[in-house]
Amino acid sequence: MTTEKVERQSWSNRLAYVMTVAGATVGFGATWRFPYLVGENGGGAYVFLFCVAMIVIGIPMILVENVIGRRMKVNAIDAFSGSANGKKIHSGWKLLGYMGLLGAFGILAYYMVLGGWVLNYIGSLVSGSLDLSSPVGIETTAAYYKESIQNSPWAIIGYTALFVLANYLILVKGVVDGIERSVKYLMPILFIFLIVMVVRNITLPGAAEGIKFYLMPDFSKITPQLFVFVLGQVFFALSLGFGVLITLSSYLDKKENLVKTATITGVMNTVIAVLAGFMIFPSLFSFGVAPNSGPTLVFQSLPIVFSNMWGGTIFAIIFFGLLVVAALTTSLTIYEVIITAIQEKTKLSRQTAIALTLGVIFVIGNVPSVLGDNLWKEVTIAGKSIFDAFDYFSGNVLFILTALGSAIFVGFVLKDEAKQELGASQGFTNLWFNYVKFVIPVIILVIFFNSL
Q1: Are 333 and 179 in contact (CB under 8 A)?
Q2: What is the rounded average pLDDT of the residues 16-40?
Q3: How far apart are CA 412 and CA 438, in angstroms?
Q4: Which domains are delineated in the chain?
Q5: How far apart are CA 198 and CA 278, in angstroms?
Q6: pTM of the prediction?
Q7: C-alpha to C-alpha distance for 32 and 255, rounded to whole angstroms
Q8: Which of 55, 195, 233, 259 has its CA 20 to 30 A from that of 273?
């Protein structure tokens, strides 16, 4: 295929870019995955390590992907091309871009299904088929989860298709008129829902115990193994390693201060993730629900909490609405990684590239992920269900290896080109560059071998 140069837009301003990146990095990583990992791994100890990890690897790696993306202002594959320091970059480096796209496909394959689950819960709450107007127990919520999620494949496929359609309607309008404009409305809605839930939860009787569990670190639970585990969560939380930040920063103006935008991105992601915990743990402790129920925390444990709460059904709808908004702001940007690459490396129109991307992922990713819990439950990949296999290989292998390659690419290939693109003071630039070149690869390798 020949590469057709597509006229590229730029973000309207820094706020638009930061809001879009914040939306890309919030998602289920902050609102679903972060809370249940906190509950499973010592509460405040995990939160403390997460904040440290954001500084140790999060912000430096955001800058790595920003530099790679803005340098060429092209898709996540061709970002690893061109020349550096007077030499043509070997085409083999583009493999990193392809790995990132494969990882993006992997996460979308199951991520959209999670969106379908959430829409299912909202539909059930609105229709009354999930009745939280009076207290229910774990038997009720577990039975509902099994019946409506695991054993209702066609309903979940329908809800997933609805979530995919919402993404399509926004994506066809373009990067600025579609993604940027929608995020301007979606992110404030997310913040409003988040604050409403936080205020409701911290004012519940007995909420203080949940806040103590969440914020007071038990340093005896902090181990090197846990810290490495948290470092890996930062990759997921910031959408590192699958081309999102590379793609988004390719639309960034050359005059923009990358250090400021990276710092704001890291801080916003951390703040939203921490706030997400405040809307969960105080209520769990208030009503005596165990915080360590794992991935099903928001789907089985929290409905119990809502059923014991005044106006519980309304707050449950607000909560799951928040999850949908967070998921949407993330899925839009992950799709854009693949769409931009297809559009710029073929002669396909944007609308065709979008339809092809969403359609193919739905058929060979979303549908198998749903059926893997029921009709295809005998089908396993490396001993994992189809859903879990997409999660594992994208999050534990492809993302981490792509991020490792990106750090090496900046440190050993771009060299001075990377420093010039960063455009910061010489002292900070040298510190960041040497850290990325010599320290970050070691940290990523430790994360990788720990995750296998």
Answers
A1: yes
A2: 81
A3: 10
A4: 14-451 (1.10.4160)
A5: 6
A6: 0.91
A7: 36
A8: 259
